[in-house]
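Our working data are protein records whose layout never changes between entries. An example says more than a description, so a record of this kind follows.
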Amino acid sequence: MISSWAIVAIVAIIVFGVVEYTKARAGIITDGDGNERLVPREDGRSVAEIEAAKRELAELKERVKVLERIATDANTGDAREQARIAAEIEALRALPAMKEDKAE
């Protein structure tokens, strides 16, 4: 079975690839200092298309943030503690039903 961290890594790699592909299509490059800038293209794309690509890139980045939060929140100590407590509560709820079955 694949571990949850392996799934997170695979999803992160795929999303990173999609983001980089979208940036490349939009003509956004990163200089040596890490600054992103738009390179004018000579392929006849309108400013509206470029702005739409920028919006799509921003949406993809937000999705990556959400996916990272989902992937990491389930693995925190607090999340494991909450899951353990929930399991204990469910086990205690099952006890009265078991006692009734034994009494019959």
Q: What stands out?
A: The longest strand covers residues 28-30. Residues 44 and 50 are 11 Å apart (CA to CA).
